[in-house]
């Protein structure tokens, strides 16, 4: 037991004890901070298989190490689940492909564009030689508007508006605008000059409308197009039969599966109907798909072509829960494969890939275009079509 003397030294011993206690609290606080840093979402993401030797999950390192940075919004309440599924696909490809000449680090962010920019800087400061990400449209737009693209960066989405991407920034992702353009190319084979585009006024719907119309009217002086808004009201729906009855017409739906299913019976049955992958919610929904009969759409080999060589090469994840998550998992696989080719290629122009998301090729100045494959609904089943 510690006893204080009863002489004049008592004051000094009390001071000594207070200093000692203060130092204990200081060191305890430091220890807590260190532990918190090492278990924070930014420092580590979900554990992967131990045998992936070229996949390093540490998001911050004390020394400058050349590496590939995978930048994902794993801390976002809105996009965290999607980001983790992309990470799983990326990791699945890492286990299958040849060992890379460098390590990979996962950088966990929120969906705040400022946080994404700060983390991008941290990756560069830590020695990143190539960055994969961001995943969100806002994050890509913020990065494209900045002047910090010091290394090749493969984004997993596109930028908003007419932002001119700086050198070293390459766009890739699951943009449905590419699907709309591809649908217009397929629809041209019908040899019908007029397109009726049906939209619901949402930002995505209007972007799909613009992409389809641009491709449809391109290099064809006789092509025409009109836009009709969708409303789930009987009096409005009944008018669609007359508006789509012309024998020179094709129809393009910029709608999701639910709205397309409501609208389909009101469209002229003899008029070809095209749509994007958002109408396809799974091959097991035969009753649901029956209501979409004869609608043609495009989607990725991962979902439509199980005998595709790349699809057979990669393991599927369990319990992803939806087709959208399946698509994001496939995006992670092809993002890894593109990244590996970017590390090896002399120029990006020479990169092409028969991927699980479609045939991918580089289109100047800065975009990797993904060509999906065509299919159609027939008696509740999905039939894959030959590319025209």
DSSP E strands, number:
15
Strand percent estimate: 15-25%
Measured between the Cα atoms of the first and last residue, the distance is: 91 Å
CATH homologous superfamily heading of the largest domain: Response regulator
The CATH topology of the largest domain corresponds to Rossmann fold
Organism: Nitrosomonas cryotolerans ATCC 49181
GO cellular component, one term: periplasmic side of cell outer membrane
GO molecular function, one term: enzyme regulator activity
InterPro entries: LpoA (IPR007443), Peripla_BP_I (IPR028082)
Structural account:
This protein has 388 residues and is an alpha/beta fold. The protein has two domains: 41-171 and 301-371, Response regulator (Rossmann fold, 3-Layer(aba) Sandwich); 177-300 and 372-384, Response regulator (Rossmann fold, 3-Layer(aba) Sandwich). It is 38% helix and 18% strand. The chain contains 13 helices and 15 strands. The strands form three sheets. It has a seven-stranded mixed sheet with strand order 7-6-8-9-10-14-15. A five-stranded parallel sheet has the order 2-1-3-4-5, with helices on both faces. Helix 3 packs across helix 4 and helix 5 (176-188) packs parallel to helix 6 (203-217). It starts with 9 loop residues before the first helix and ends with a strand. InterPro entries: LpoA (IPR007443), Peripla_BP_I (IPR028082). One of its GO terms (molecular function) is enzyme regulator activity. This is Penicillin-binding protein activator.
């Amino acid at each position: 037991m510690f006893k204080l003397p009863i002489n004049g030294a008592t004051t000094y011993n009390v001071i000594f004890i207070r200093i000692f206690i203060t130092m204990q609290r200081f060191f305890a606080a430091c220890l807590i901070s260190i532990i918190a840093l090492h278990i924070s979402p930014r420092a580590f993401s979900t554990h992967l298989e131990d045998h992936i030797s070229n996949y390093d999950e540490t998001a911050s390192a004390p020394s400058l190490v050349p590496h590939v940075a995978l930048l994902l919004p794993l801390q976002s309440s809105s996009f965290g689940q999607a980001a983790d599924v992309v990470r799983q696909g990326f990791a699945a490809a890492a286990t299958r492909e040849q060992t890379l000449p460098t390590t990979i680090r996962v950088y966990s962010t929120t969906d705040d564009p400022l946080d994404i920019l700060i983390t991008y800087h941290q990756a560069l400061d830590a020695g990143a030689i190539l960055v994969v990400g961001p995943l969100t449209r806002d994050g890509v737009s913020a990065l494209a508007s900045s002047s910090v693209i010091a290394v090749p960066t493969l984004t997993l989405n596109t930028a908003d508006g007419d932002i001119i991407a700086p050198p070293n920034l390459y766009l890739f992702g699951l943009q449905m605008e590419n699907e709309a353009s591809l649908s217009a190319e397929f629809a041209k084979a019908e040899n019908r000059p007029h397109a009726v585009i049906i939209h619901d006024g949402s930002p995505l719907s209007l972007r799909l409308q613009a992409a389809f119309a641009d491709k449809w009217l391109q290099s064809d002086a006789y092509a025409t197009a009109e836009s009709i808004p969708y409303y789930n009201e009987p009096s409005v729906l009944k008018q669609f039969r007359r508006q789509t009855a012309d024998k020179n017409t094709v129809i393009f739906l910029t709608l999701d599966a639910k709205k397309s299913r409501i609208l389909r019976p009101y469209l002229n049955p003899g008029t070809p109907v095209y749509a994007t992958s958002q109408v396809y919610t799974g091959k097991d929904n035969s009753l649901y798909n029956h209501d979409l009969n004869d609608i043609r759409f495009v989607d990725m080999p991962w979902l439509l072509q199980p005998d595709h060589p790349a699809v057979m090469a990669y393991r599927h994840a369990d319990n992803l829960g939806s087709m959208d998550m399946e698509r994001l998992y496939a995006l992670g696989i092809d993002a890894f494969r593109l990244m590996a080719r970017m590390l090896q290629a002399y120029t990006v122009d020479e990169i092409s890939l028969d991927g699980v998301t479609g045939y991918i090729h580089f289109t100047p100045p800065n975009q990797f275009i993904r060509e999906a494959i065509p299919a159609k609904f027939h008696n509740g089943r999905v039939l894959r079509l030959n590319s025209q």
